[in-house]
UniProtKB/TrEMBL annotation, chain A:
Amino acids binding 7-chloro-L-tryptophan: K83
UniProt: FAD binding residues: G13, G14, T15, A16, V189, L343
InterPro entries from the UniProt entry: FAD/NAD-bd_sf (IPR036188), Flavin-dep_Halogenase_NPB (IPR050816), Flavin_halogenase (IPR006905), Trp_halogen (IPR033856)
Membrane-spanning ranges: none
UniProt name for this protein: Tryptophan halogenase
Binding site for L-tryptophan: E352
Species of provenance: Agaribacter marinus
PANTHER family, A to Z: FAD-BINDING PROTEIN (PTHR43747), FLAVIN-DEPENDENT TRYPTOPHAN HALOGENASE (PTHR43747:SF4)
Keyword terms of this UniProt record: FAD, Flavoprotein, Nucleotide-binding
Automatic annotation (TrEMBL), chain B:
Organism: Agaribacter marinus
Name used for this protein in its record: SapC protein
InterPro entries found in the cross-reference section: SapC
Amino acid sequence: MESFIKSIVIVGGGTAGWLTASILASRFSTRIKHDELTITLCESPNIPIIGVGEGTWPTMASTLRDIGVSETDFFRECEASYKQGSKFVEWDEEASGGFYYHPFEELRQGSNGSFAEYWLSQNSDESFARHFSLQEAICEENLAPKNITDPEYKAKSNYGYHLNAAKFSAFLQKHCISKLGVKHILADVEDVLINTAGNIEAVTLSGNKSLSGDLFIDCTGFKSLLLGKALNVPFNPVSDHLFADTALATQVTYSNKSNEIMSYTQSTAQSSGWIWDIGLPTRRGVGYVFSSKYASVEQAKSALLAYIKNTGGDTSDLNVREINFTSGYRDKFWHKNCVAVGLSAGFLEPLEASALVLVELSAMKIAEQLPRTNALMHLAESRFNKTFRYHWKRAVDFLKLHYVLSHRNTPFWQDNRNPESIPESLQELMQLWEHKVPDANDFEPIGELFNFMSYQFVLYGNKFSTKTPFTADEHAVSFVKSYIEQNKKNRKQIVAMLPSNRELLEKIYKYGLSTI
Amino acid sequence: MNSDGIELLDSVRHKNLKVDTSLVNIPVNQVNAAYIIVNEIANLSHEYPIFFRKDANTGQFGLVVLLGLHSGENLFIRDNKWHANYLPLDVLRRPFQAMLKEDDNFSGGRIAIDMQSEQVKAGKGEALFDDSGNETAYLERVKQTFSQIMGGAEYTKDCMQKMAKLNLIESVSLKFDSVRGKELVVNGLYSINKDNLAALHGDELQLAHNEGLLQIAHLIMSSGSHIQKLINWSNE
């Protein structure tokens, strides 16, 4: 007899757990309504969430829309603000004041990357990002990506969010339970029961209860209770490539209520890592992520305090939390009837906010590949693993690239440029890019987490030099030129038209965004 | 006087002030839309196309009559005359305005006058106060206009919110060919979502009926026929 997949059990209720539950439950709402599928989320009442994932990608806007939440409610309840990209400060050189942007805007340059080629040929003083994207100018003024008259989720300038992870988690929980029919159990997992075929049969819970299911999703964070601990799927560190292993996280209050809210994640290079700075409407989230091989916690802490002081923050009453991690990911993410999503699958480091987007993509892939019957589980397993091994590997390359391009001189940075620390795949790409600009064809058809434009923004933001020996195609050049002209005009217009981040958020609190 | 030339109305200071109501073709009237309140719809729908439009400052839906097809164009004004039987209250109130204590609280306001208005600067026309300092019939009419606007503003806002909640509002884009052969588009307007209106049932239908939303919706839909009039005027 065929046995259908009728119950999904999610263990762990941080952002990863509730986001996965939301995505699956909204995708399978019909099955849930007709009792053909149940989704149960079981979380410990005792374990706090890690909650440092406070930056998203633009994918989150469509995810929220798809799971059916009101963006107005989201802003009101999650201390969310708009993020339009990342600004990298002094990554190239110490104390230079230099910066570059990796904006969220998707440039309309087709797949051949011709913009970068043109920009390189011009030796322009204007940054690559500013030349082609409106967002550098928008971000430098801390403007919102839209006006109050624009409906929910509609952008004049592509955006993601900064948010309070704990509040976001609670917000999704409420939505999952009240609107999406997700069952919620508060209990500690005491044991994991595995049958002879190696599948998880059930988890036993505190209070002599047990919870069985057809598919188990491990959202238990770094502990990886199901995939790692119970099923013994090994963890592969990538700390040879990405050195960061410690984060000191804190929250900084605004000196007054009208302080601007940054429209981007600011990432400022330090002697042994970098400091993130994320503007929420209520506070800033600031943290130093570094390698303990190159700096002690005390050294890092004093660098963090110095940064906070320099950026106008009050350091008198700071609560600094230390988070230790090993950069890396599981050998496989889906094994038998268990799939890990979130920190239980892996974690690289906070750079480029890849954590939440990987949760979104994982949940979507599970929804897409969810087998009808238990017998088909292995197909989903192998497809899922193939895709996500690729994503993680490519993410390592992309994050590493940020470090490799730097000209900073402390041991941390010098060692980052040691070829032995650079993945071969990245070395190959960089070789390639010495002679051509990155384009869509440099990658495999599986789909990129970070597409070639992201590589262009980082490479040329860091003054990477690509030789452009051949004459550019006339039509391409005239297209690029007209694009730049148009971009200049649009820039003036849009900067004049957009309100500040804070102004728009306050209007959203007061009036809300309309749905049309 | 503040820098905008807006002064709170004062029987002493403005004792001798006159308003030239015969001046119609003045800059403040050269706009292609005017805000209206729900109470006016029945009258205005006979002559003007009516739409929803979002307030630029709050994003909230308001009601407007469309006066022209281009920004700054008022096709109802020709030869310094407003060619309609009914004028929107928001036009009639000029050059006066409500001074609001808070931008949202329309009820607690007082009346102010725009000293920079051509109608004031003309130095002739309707007096506001008589020789003994009492309000003239003209000023009383103005005050009545304001009490109508203020009384209707909250109700209008409430209706708009309910209609939006019932998904009765949809974005429309007016496209038409001008005689000069160029396609023109008017954006930023919203009208009635007819499918959703027709699909109303049960409690929602009852609510829409009780609150007068159905009537508003039908008046707005029927007012759409006046767009052709504007296009014809525009082509003249």
